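[09:14] KT: can someone run the structure on this one? pasting the chain below
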Amino acid sequence: MSVDAQAVSALPRATVVAWRNAVFAVFAINGVALATWMSRVPAVRDSLGATTAEMGWIVFAIAAGSIVGLTSASHLLAWAGSRRTIAGSVIVGAAGLAIVGLGASAAGHGALVVLGLALLGGGMGMCDVAMNVEGAAAERALGRTVMPLFHAAFSGGTIAGAGLGALAEWGDLSTAAHFGAVAVLSMVAVVLSVRFLHLDALGAATASSDEPHLGWRDRLGLWTDRGTLLIGLIVLGMAFAEGSANDWLALAMVDGHSVDNSTGAVIYGVFVTAMTVGRIGGVFVLDRFGRVPVLRATTALAVAGLLIVIFVPSAAVATVGVVLWGLGASLGFPVGMSAAADDSRTATARVSVVATIGYFAFLVGPPVLGFLGDAVGLLRALLLVLALVALAGLASPAARERS
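[09:31] RB: done, structure tokens below
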């Protein structure tokens, strides 16, 4: 996938701004969809009468779908283009969300829930790669760093989706009605948004006149490319740092620092807030200092924060560590996506590889930490996260901007 620099520079400012805003919308739509499901997991479990172990197998469907979507995205983008891939993947994911709602509302239809989750995961996986490729191209068109802001929009979408889920739960709204409404709104929003995406219009979704088209063997070959894998290591470590907090931070504070459940939830909120602030403020820091110094600094912050959380017994001081952890983990994933897309000829395939590695951490990390936590306690289990973050810091030169 390549973008003609002259064609980009010739775009009117209003067109580029509309393009940027459309990418914001796509990221937010994905966030809303994910949080819609996550906010109603207890309701789905109660409706199905499933045990915790059974829910683990049911939820595995979204992980399996995500892996299929992530690994097939580069091939789909090469064949269908960015607009159709983004629109199609959101529609597939939204349909899956609606099916989950129907299956949960009709007690005993666990198979429908599994099918819906697989579609939701597949759609989100494909969209994740496509929207990051589109976002990287929009970033180049703008001439300044915006990828962290796109990921902040995803975070904003999850906050909105969680809020809507809480309202739906409070109002005793069925999952069929709730998920169905969000699905329809997502479909409408993406159809309205993709009109303003310009990667395809610049000739980047297919082979350009001056660059060869990447075949499927070339795309698979990037899995052995040293530079791509080092960027993947950065994303792996930082995704693990983010995902482990999402799943285990509240419980680690409750079990390891003896806070109550509500305080644990508040401390997790502190982490999410620090992540969001880091992504919003990160655009200015990245433009001023560049990727490598910023990645080194943020990984150092995350390591310091994790050390405090793991080893300092005071809950108040550990909360300061959580802030450092959140700030430190905020930029690794979006910077990795930008770095993977630096070479426009291979941007789609490289983003697919790096995103798959990152989501592997999101999907596999939580159960690994759970097993480790059973053996040594959750706080000590976080030493694995610390080690991966340190490795990400060592790999940070791989994200250096191309001249």
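[09:33] KT: thanks! The mean pLDDT is 86.
[09:34] RB: yep, looked fine to me
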